[in-house]
Amino acid sequence: MWDQIQADANLISGARAVLTRLHDAGFQAYLVGGCVRDALLSKPIHDVDIATSALPAEVTSIFERTIPTGMQHGTVTVMVDQYPFEVTTFRQESGYEHFRRPKEVSFIHDLEGDLLRRDFTFNAMAMDIDGHLIDPYDGQNDLDKGIVRCVGDADARFQEDALRMIRCVRFAACYDFQVDPSTWAALRIHRTKLQYIAMERVRAEMDKMIDLSLYSAIRGMSLMQESRLLEFTKVMIHDQWNLEDHTLYQVVEQEQDRLEHWDKHADVAVRWGLLFYRSHTNPEQAQSIMQKLTFPNRKNTEIVELLQLHAYLHSIVIGNKEEDVKPSWVRGVLTFGKDAALRWLHMMEGDELFQSPHQQQASPIFTQLRKHGERWLSELHVLKISDLDIKGHDILKHQKKKAGPWLGELLQHLLYQVAMGQVDNDRHELLEEASQVINNE
């Protein structure tokens, strides 16, 4: 199987070296988990986990460079050059607390027993130093058939760690697999236990879906909607997130090729933006959902600004004033930023895939924005107040006035006038325009 592993040659040679050192010291050692699964799926591998009969102290005595990552749980990180390898002693777990962590960990000498504690059959495979597959729970067969199946008793697996229910959905979505009926039935029985799982762990699984593609994210949301998983999160989000629009899921099936082509050029904020928009979630609701899911502030801001820009541009459509399209676009760019504008244009390309043939044609205003928006954006020579050839203190000194809210409003006015080409970005002309505005008040 070594020749099936798609990975950096130094990562592979490092993995071989770790297995060899452990074998030479008299211990069993195997590649396990995701790296074996992904090798069989011909997917790139970026990290390698190793299971061994050696105890943590024995691992640290064998290798020169180690990090005590989780000694109490049997895990030592072994460094080979710049590559880290997590080496974990064969173990069994018992007495799970709050459906997420084991109370007791006991070290064993049996690989098959170690593999039994894992979540799904395709994650419970191992590969020995000679490249032979060890597959006691028929994981390769499930991979070949495209099935997500728990190892052993699905009820037990989900009670051990309730996050496995979200992981089940994530694997089904990302690999385009079906969930085994007994695993699905157990998931529906135990879904209330998701309330014990930290929101950041739930979000991390969602991130993995949407990082891969919008297609996988929508398919994952479809499965979570069908199973009602999101009704039982630790912090309530389902009341703000309408995932019942089956148009989303129908498009995924009908337009998969076109959606995947669009997806290749979409960043994560655009994918989230389109997912929120198409699930009828407004900017305020989206922001609340992302805060509850512990999104990083920067990602939260990018997505909210995109949705706010869309809401602003949608208000132009309602106003139906085609002559106001460019001025309104410029105001939107100046308010929400160039990045939000570029993301909006890309989001609208993706949104076309969700248009039913029976729906009315896009508004002439949106058509103009999509046709000319990028060119209008490239013609803007100023995007923020700091781009102006004038500072607030210049105006205060020239007008002999005290600072106040009027100054920010005036600077925004000057920014817009320069962006629209009504005033040159020249200090003298800007001061003159400022005087006219103040005198006309």
UniProtKB/TrEMBL annotation:
Residues 176-232 form the tRNA nucleotidyltransferase/poly(A) polymerase RNA and SrmB- binding domain. Residues 270-433 form the CCA-adding enzyme C-terminal domain. Its cofactor is Mg(2+). The keyword Lipid biosynthesis does not apply. One of its GO terms (biological process) is tRNA processing. GO terms for molecular function: metal ion binding; nucleotide binding; nucleotidyltransferase activity; tRNA binding. CDD domains: NT_ClassII-CCAase. Keywords: Magnesium, Metal-binding, Nucleotide-binding, Nucleotidyltransferase, RNA-binding, Transferase, tRNA processing. Residues 29-149 form the Poly A polymerase head domain. PANTHER family: CCA TRNA NUCLEOTIDYLTRANSFERASE 1, MITOCHONDRIAL. Belongs to the tRNA nucleotidyltransferase/poly(A) polymerase family. This is CCA tRNA nucleotidyltransferase.
